[in-house]
């Protein structure tokens, strides 16, 4: 069966809880377990038999980093991968409706939609099989998992028939308890979904005709009608109609909203590597550093043989790790340098940062409650009850990466456009530059 996949990558106004890291690279390209966050999605989609094309959909201006990533992913996974840019944030349903012809081109009979900001085992094949067994061929499937009663309120909540798994009731982020089964942000649709999204679009348009002032916020009323949320506008209406089913997974799953959740997601993916990519996990070797648990080291990194790394450590491209260094539960991003005897725990060390000799950089883990099997990571608030929520430590980068500072090169790629920064974005980037150049020189003690 010809299949497609759409990965919703959002845009620059999204991912605010991921700052300052999302200022430097778009959040979907942030490395998790050594590879860009969305590469895990792409890899899972590329494995599904019949997959014809993978579409990344968002409202980022195309730029060099994204374009380079797409070219290398196409080569690695041997499947067409394109970026479709929304002219504005159209919501989780508006973008796929706007680009429906592109999604269905080539005769796709079904397609997956995946939120970029989740990490998962991505049981896509299982979702296909589940649909064969439980629904009719035109039914839609949501991937669901179990959360605890309190945390479920932060997600889309699903009430399903216990025998058939048909969704009877769907409420997006309810204010009181509805169900422990939550929406994982991974869906299997057939082309028939566009009729349902189309109905919402028509309704939005009619509302605009009746109440034209509704369109005043946006420069254009059409745009407002095109903003559609899959969850509130479509799933809520589909629940109870016999067309929407939930496939529950016990496999690992987490949102990646805050930078702290990137360390947790890295741990989940590194665990998975022992089965899926053992070659990506560092081994203890004579003359090499001491490895504890799951560790990813980029082949270009230079690690002193007396360093001790792990568990859950990802070391990026060109990183230098000196003698006697200890790193645990951390992500060290490309170009960073950890001088001799530094200790780095529960931290993200930003691109090109330098940590001076004997420095200790330590954050507080923001893991889910280990005593609750259904606990999810809490990434909602920086402050709770007026107090700063303890979290991982983040060192920003010491200078802006070339891909963000200079106009794009490589005119042969169709995606490459000169980067256009709005005045606000340019101002915040220069503010960041000044803020983050100071701490990393502070940390250098040679
Ligand atoms: N292309 C595009 N992508 C978007 C847009 N708005 C959001 N996204 C992408 O869609 C995903 C969901 O984003 P949010 O709107 O922030 O929703 P959420 O709070 O993460 O909740 C969603 O995901 C949960 C699971 O992680 C679900 O439980 C919940 O029901 C909902 O689907 C993210 O990957 C985000 O980048 C948009 O206008 N356009």
TrEMBL record:
Cited PROSITE patterns: HEXAPEP_TRANSFERASES
Domain Mannose-1-phosphate guanyltransferase C-terminal: 291-363
Gene3D superfamilies cross-referenced by the UniProt entry: Hexapeptide repeat proteins (2.160.10.10), Spore Coat Polysaccharide Biosynthesis Protein SpsA, Chain A (3.90.550.10)
Residue ranges constituting the Nucleotidyl transferase domain according to the UniProt record: 4-200
Extent of the signal sequence: none
One GO MF term attached to the UniProt entry: transferase activity
Family: Belongs to the transferase hexapeptide repeat family.
Full protein name: GDP-mannose pyrophosphorylase A
Organism from which the protein derives: Otus sunia
